[in-house]
Design brief:
212 residues; alpha+beta; 28% helix; elongated
């Protein structure tokens, strides 16, 4: 079954709410996969056009990507089991809901001068909800040494495959039953968001605080 790809805004919000991704590629020494938090760069239409991150200079994947910069980046968003216990129909079968995205990218590593801005970008995103956000400069005299150990990169997006399986295939009455009893409010928020056109609800637009 083909699952909806969502809007540009849905995809950008998925990356923002679930920034830890797998950077994967196939090099001369075999397959590589590194979990890294990434920040989306969006175009005028809201589409994700690049992903910004950094990694250890000692990561063997760096050399592999310098030799061949083609890679895939995979994001796992909200996901969870949906039990028949939530549905009154006797023959309704269980399912698993999820929102995922895969990006085909070309990775370009930055100059030394680009490392600090990349780290600051991620830090500001991660600290945004804090009352007194930590800043990179708070690392003090340790900062130069820390920065020397990592390298920034920009992954330019060439193709996107996003799949939002969040109850769109369910009858609306079944969907309402699931939403009324689903134990994970974050997942429920994403389900409401992707089914807003079918639900009589005031929370048609998911709030990032609710959905991730």
């Amino acid at each position: 079954m083909d699952f909806p790809s969502g809007t540009n805004g849905d995809l950008a919000d998925l990356v923002a709410a679930y920034p830890l991704a797998w950077l994967t590629n196939n090099g001369p020494a075999g397959f590589f996969a590194t979990p890294l938090p990434l920040i989306a760069e969006t175009g005028p239409d809201g589409a994700v056009v690049a992903l910004i991150g950094h990694c250890s200079r000692r990561n063997a994947q760096v050399a592999a990507l310098r030799a061949d910069p083609r890679a895939q980046i995979l994001f796992m968003g909200p996901q969870g089991y949906v039990s028949p216990a939530l549905v009154s129909r006797p023959h309704w079968a269980p399912t698993w809901n999820f929102a995922v995205a895969t990006f085909e990218v070309t990775v370009a590593f930055g100059e030394d001068s680009e490392t600090l801005p990349a780290v600051r970008l991620l830090t500001e995103h991660a600290e945004a909800s804090q009352g007194r956000p930590w800043q990179v400069e708070d690392a003090g005299e340790r900062l130069p040494n820390l920065l020397s150990r990592i390298i920034s990169f920009r992954a330019t997006v060439h193709a996107t495959d996003a799949r939002f399986k969040l109850g769109q295939e369910e009858d609306v009455d079944v969907l309402r039953e699931i939403l009324a009893a689903y134990p994970d409010p974050v997942m429920a928020g994403w389900m409401r968001r992707l089914n807003a056109d079918r639900l009589d609800t005031d929370d048609a637009e998911a709030i990032i605080g609710e959905t991730g």
